[in-house]
Amino acid sequence: MIAGGGAPPVFFAGPCVIESREHSLRMAERLKKIGEETGARLVFKSSYDKANRSSKDSYRGPGLEEGLSILAEVKAKTGLPVIADVHEPGQAAAAAGVLDVLQIPAFLSRQTDLVTAIARTGKAVNVKKGQFMAPDDMDHVIEKIRAEGNEKILLCERGASFGYHNLVVDMRSFPIMAAFGYPVVYDVTHSLQLPGGGRETGGLKQYAPYLARAAAATGSVDGFFMEVHDDPDHALSDRTTQLDVKTIPVLLRSILELTAAARRLTG
Fold this sequence. Notes:
This protein is α/β, with parallel strands linked by helices.
């Protein structure tokens, strides 16, 4: 399993969307070095298609074929596992040929055909809990995946809708989902979005270290998902929530230390 089992947390990190082959390779190499420096286990994340952008004119990425080609090269050249969103059942088989973890976007976490198609690949599945779902509602998603004989399940918290244009993270969510017996992941950066409200989704990334450390302190989180960029202000997607790669080593070290301490206290 890519996470859980009492191992130190894994970090899913990389740009929100694939911007170019060169940029993806550069970011993956940078993150690989950070992993070596901090002792953190890293999985490279980047989307080949952002199918849920606010505006029809927003950049979506290179698409399935080119995007998977880029992620395959990242994997071959860096040795890092890779993860990306899958938005349609028909993409599952092709995605499984490259990705180590297939991710179900939060808005689609109740789409049975998509969940079933991804589960059937036999690959690890990271399911983002819908903003409209309670943590205990994830048992239904688990049942759909297990029905296809797949036990490689990760449950991901990414915040819950709190009125319009705002999300909150209920720290109870982590132990509640952990009680299902599968690894729990915290999506740090997406939980800091201010969804809708304009042409682009806003965000409050300055609070990322606080929420990440709070989640680590629960002792119930096996992985941390964060979008990372070397020039966030000019990123092609999620400029307001992507973290500057220069800040990542300190953040990863603090999360690792807090997780270890919390597990000693609670274990």
